[in-house]
Design a protein that fits this description.
The relative contact order is 0.14. It is globular and about 70 Å long. It has 498 residues and is mainly α. The longest helix has 52 residues.
């Protein structure tokens, strides 16, 4: 087939396969993530609707009940995912927390809420790392971020409309002898269970079992997401080094172990744990989480502190998310197009930093309300970017499973900081809370800058031929039986995404 015909064929097949994958994979995942975000937000809405009063909480006790058990389950959940299949495991854990959320509407004191939230955290912890890992096995490296945004943007839409839903549910106050805030948990928990049933029916386990693809489309898609093709990013303008041509034997071709065939081994887990990018991006995301969690959990309270009450407070939490939604999609498109992750974070985070500075220094309610627009506009586009770094830069499967989960385990510790950043005694200005978040965002910017510099340095070293010894080291591991995993990101032709 002439080269131009091959190019035309690949372009046509890529569009066709992507369209089908987007239509069949993203909507079920979006439903699961919608359930997750609604659950994270409903406590904040219930708080201003009487949760603290009815359960006799006071002071910092409300903050205490928000600390979950995410970080304890994320890595084990990702290791299990390959065994059970994402189409089974993800709906199972979502169904479990739907049941727990429903039961939240029946608690009466701190002990009950604390127990419920700990169990809920254990159920929810595996969802986000599992979704990221699953998407990285379905899509190519630089198709990933836009798909993450298409999936997660339901979070931004739900942020805008969840407050409207909560306002409507609160009108059920007194029905069945239950307060309106209890109905928020009960009805949204039932919706979560329904969402997981839909996802379990429509979500494919992998490309090979995707019934909506033809045989030709499955073969074409598998070529693009196979471990070797999905990991070794060779600059077409660079020729392989003489060392590689003369010494790389057939045994060194990592495609001999496909993603489906790879078996769990602790060496791959340790490769993920010891990867410097895991820790740089993990603690950077920690800084983002402090902002993201506190923003979504306490925005209703912040708005109420500006002088709005009841339904008016709920409704005024909607507009700040609008510019965040638009910019998040735009940044994701550019990020996949230019194959950049970190540089766009370095561009967006200063917007949020300015927002927190404005919130700290503002003397009027109008100024503080304007600041929350800048906060969302800077932080929310950075989330999908940072979540795409490790799936792009980790290979094979169990290393990627470990890095993506460990990144989130580190980051979710920021939830502890977030829940204590905004205490009732700071109302209405919350200067201490804003200052804490501002410091963490500055730290996140520094860490992402360090990760970009590391990737640039490592890519240059590989381009200069200074990582060819990786081939010999991997061959020795393989020959001695100390690993059966693919060479993955150790290959000297692998290029890290910035």
């Amino acid at each position: 087939m002439p080269s131009q015909e091959i190019v035309d064929y690949e372009r046509k097949m890529t569009k066709r396969v992507l369209w089908k994958l987007d239509c069949h994979v993203l909507p079920p995942l979006a439903l699961l993530w919608l359930a997750n975000f609604i659950d994270r937000s409903n406590v904040g809405n219930a708080r201003i609707a009487g949760l603290e009063t009815d359960t006799h909480l006071h002071g910092n006790q409300f903050n205490t009940v928000l600390a979950g058990a995410y970080m304890l389950v994320e890595m084990p959940s990702n290791w299990i995912l390959k065994k059970l299949g994402a189409n089974r495991w993800l709906p199972i854990i979502v169904c479990a927390w739907g049941i727990v959320t429903t039961l939240t509407g029946l608690v009466h004191n701190l002990g009950g809420i604390l127990a419920i939230r700990i169990v809920l955290g254990a159920c929810e912890g595996g969802l986000l790392p599992g979704m990221i890992l699953y998407l990285s096995t379905i899509y190519k490296r630089h198709e990933l971020q836009l798909r993450c945004v298409h999936t997660f943007q339901v979070m931004y839409h739900s942020s805008m409309f969840h407050s409207l839903l909560a306002t409507a549910i609160l009108k059920m106050d007194g029905i069945g002898g239950l307060a309106g805030w209890r109905w928020i948990f009960i009805l949204e928990g039932i919706c979560t269970i329904l969402f997981c049933l839909v996802a379990a029916i429509y979500l494919p386990a992998d490309i090979a079992s995707a019934r909506f693809l033809t045989t030709e489309e499955r073969e074409f898609a598998a070529q693009g997401t196979d471990g070797e093709k999905n990991s070794v990013d060779i600059n077409e303008k660079e020729k392989p080094s003489e060392f590689h041509r003369e010494n790389a034997s057939e045994d060194l071709i990592s495609s001999r172990v496909t993603q489906e065939e790879e078996q769990f081994e602790w060496k791959e887990v340790m490769r993920g744990v010891l990867d410097v990018q895991t820790w740089l991006t993990g603690f950077a995301y920690f800084g983002l989480i402090v902002s993201l969690y506190s923003y979504s959990l306490f925005l209703p309270t912040i708005v109420a502190g500006l002088g709005y009450t009841g339904s008016a407070a709920q409704l005024h939490t909607v507009p700040p998310y609008v510019p965040a939604v638009v910019l998040t999609v735009f940044i994701a498109f550019l990020s996949d197009r230019f194959r950049w992750r970190g540089p766009f974070i370095l561009i967006c985070l200063p917007i949020a930093i300015v927002g927190y500075i404005v919130a700290i220094t503002a003397e009027t309610d109008t100024g503080r309300y304007a600041a929350v627009f800048l906060m969302a506009t800077g932080v929310y586009p950075s989330g999908p970017s940072i979540l795409s770094i490790l799936p792009n830069n980790s290979n094979g499967h169990y290393k990627r499973a470990t890095t993506t989960a460990l990144q989130l385990a580190i980051a979710n510790c920021g939830g502890f900081v977030a829940t204590f950043a905004y205490t009732p005694d700071q109302a209405p200005k919350y200067i201490r809370g804003h200052t804490i978040v501002l410091c963490f965002l500055i730290l996140a910017w520094i860490l992402i800058a360090a990760n970009v510099c590391y990737c640039l340095s490592e890519n240059k070293a590989r381009a200069d031929g200074r990582r060819q010894h990786n081939l010999i080291q991997y061959q020795e591991l393989w020959n001695s039986g100390r690993t059966s995993a693919p060479i993955g990101d150790r290959h000297p032709d692998f290029r890290f995404t910035l």
